[in-house]
Amino acid sequence: MDKKFSLKKVYIVSTLLFAVILLSTYLLLYSITSDLKVFFLFTYYTIFLLACVAIVLYGIFHRLTLFTNELNKTLENMIDGNISCLEEQYDETLLSQIHHHLHRLYHILEAAKNSAHTEKLRLQELISDISHQLKTLMTTLRLNESSIEREISDPNKLQSLLHTNTLLLSKLEFLLLSLVKISRLETGIITPAPGYQAIGNTILTALENIVLAAAEKKIEIEFHYSDEYKAYHDPKWTSEAIYNILDNAVKYTNENGYISIEVSTLESYTKISIKDSGIGIRESEIPHIFQRFYRSPSVKDLPGVGIGLHLAQDIIARQYGFIHVLSALGIGSTFEIFLLNGDAPK
Hints:
This protein is an alpha+beta fold. Helices cover 59% and strands 13% of the residues. The protein has eight helices and seven strands, in the order H-H-H-H-E-H-H-E-E-H-E-E-H-E-E. A five-stranded mixed sheet has the order 2-4-5-7-6. It is elongated, with a radius of gyration of 36 Å.
């Protein structure tokens, strides 16, 4: 038994049902009056009424069929990537409105697809570049290892080779950390479990991972620890966000510079200010620095892949916070992290 719904079946069944009801009514009327003239009069009227109803229903059915066919044709063209069908101009009808919304939806989906495709290509290029650099570093380290074995009796050459190895290992560590950060973004494993708790130890955890790099450049770091400041945060992920900002501060601050960290309590937020004496950021670039893979042309020769700040912003945003940047080229930068001063809104 075919139980599929169709407009044609609805049209036929509705017409027949209407006819049966009218005929039943007039047969009942004849059985009561027994007047043939009245019966035939009402029969003619019934036939006329049925014809009108049938014509009206057929008109509705025909228009619905045309509408459905047009809509199916439009959807098929969208699937095939033929946008020209959506550019046609219609009057103010339901079909026109649907075409308009489909046109907007098509462009939104196309823009999202193109954006995802572009980002995928950039990600592939980035991973390919990092992989190539890793292979080059490993090859160089192996060659240096052989050279060290040969020059073991010459202290000067040995010291030079060991220094080169130290630099290569630092770069290797940086590239591996970059791959880890990329994987965190791609797999979506950033799942903070924040709570209202002291923020001091979280900042210290981030500092522990940056002090050696700062010491190599003789950068002074100022932070007055206190356990009185609290914020709504996940210590593990928040320390990762703070570390990424501090890492940038060290990276883009010249030797003998300084970095200061201050914590203050506002009415609704706890603010962490990270100020450095680095190269600063152009005002026009500030809106872009949190974009994924964005790197300023002025620092393209320095190590980096453009994901640290994006990751930091993502982590803070997932905890109902935000980051504000104050900077000027050649003067330095201040990154202000705002975390809720209390539990999360319900």
